[in-house]
Known about the structure:
The chain has about 190 residues and is of the alpha+beta class. It has one domain (about 5-170): 3-methyladenine DNA Glycosylase, Chain A. About 15% of the residues lie in helices and about 25% in strands. The chain has helices at about 5, 10-15, 100-105, 120-125, and strands at about 20-25, 25-35, 65-70, 75-80, 90-100, 145, 155-160, 175. Strands 1, 2, 3, 4, 5, 6, 7 and 8 form an 8-stranded antiparallel sheet that branches.
Amino acid sequence: MEREFFDRDAEVVAPLLLGCVLSHGEVSVRLTEVEAYAGGRDAASHAFRGRTARNAVMFGPPGHTYVYFTYGMHFCVNLVCGPAGTPSAVLLRAGSVLSGSAVASARRPRSSVRDLARGPARLCQALGIDRSLDGADVCADGPLRVSLGDPVDPSLVRCGPRTGISSATDTLWRFWIEGEPSVSPYRRHAPRSR
């Protein structure tokens, strides 16, 4: 994938990633669900309040991965978009495993085929993505690669509110392929009990 593909606003890149293939080692996943996050102009973005050690890669050049750890147990992967200095990224929410299903199943032994990469944490588990891949360049010959897959029929692309966030809840920047079993269910944010 050329770097220019990612050098646009996240909300423009996000629907174009549907049907693309993310590969790490033996496992390749066709992306079926994504969400856009737009830095300083998006209250739900990790970069909304500025640069930190955690989100620094979002401020760098496009075409790199922003991998973060959440809830003390899961990794999530994003693809950085836009020009350097303008933090935005696309969260990869779900996909269907195209190759390496035995490896993905070994990483997620109690999952059905549908659920192997259904949801951002499961997608990272299936692909073996962790914080060591934060900042990986998907436009170079590195450990993570993004390539064009089979085109998605535009009539099957849907958009709606992003899932599980507490800010900017009405922004319609979640995109998915209608009828694809690996798409995760929509969940409105619910405050965590203390």
